[in-house]
Amino acid sequence: MEITDIRIRKVEKEGKMKAVVSITIEDEFVVHDIKVIEGEKGLFIAMPSRKAADGEYRDIAHPINSRTREGLQNMILTKYQELIEANE
């Protein structure tokens, strides 16, 4: 699987959510609403989710294994850092 595009929209409001991301996979499939979140241990990504009837949030789309999640997170956070540094 090749991520062929990463588009980042920085969130201007103060808070834990820093950006909203869309990724394109192999120029054929797009996943919107991946969030860049500032947590206690640093930045991480949260996959698109929706609130279920029981009040819990469930991911709509997500990587199947931790290796893929880590790779995706590293690509997105690298691109986010480049955006931040370019705007300083």
From TrEMBL:
Signal peptide: none
Record has Cell cycle as a keyword: yes
GO biological process annotation, one example: division septum assembly
Keywords noted in UniProt: Cell cycle, Cell division, Septation
Pfam families: SpoVG
PANTHER family, sorted: SEPTATION PROTEIN SPOVG-RELATED
Protein family per UniProt: Belongs to the SpoVG family.
Stated role: Could be involved in septation.
Record-given protein name: Putative septation protein SpoVG
